[in-house]
Specification:
By secondary structure, the chain is α+β, with helices and mostly antiparallel strands. The chain contains two helices and three strands. The relative contact order is 0.26.
């Protein structure tokens, strides 16, 4: 699997995350960012499967990179 960097929000103190990547073989999107750790919010998630993780993505990241993520 090769990942293509699509962009980041540049909102982090330490670098370029959260960030979006596209899997060049499947077109799937990979998100790098801070894990959701708030137990109250995690408890509200539906149908959580073993091994799933949750990443917090600022809305501005979608706004900045919507065309890249959609492949447009």
């Amino acid at each position: 699997m090769a990942l293509e960097f699509l962009g980041s929000s540049n909102t982090s103190q330490g670098g370029g995350c959260p960030s979006f990547y596209r899997d060049t073989e499947t077109g799937d999107i990979v998100v790098q960012g801070d894990a959701l750790t708030d137990p109250d919010k995690i408890a509200q998630l539906l149908e959580v499967k073993p091994g799933e993780g949750f990443v917090v993505v600022p809305a501005v990241l979608f706004e900045y990179h919507a065309a890249k993520v959609s492949g447009a």
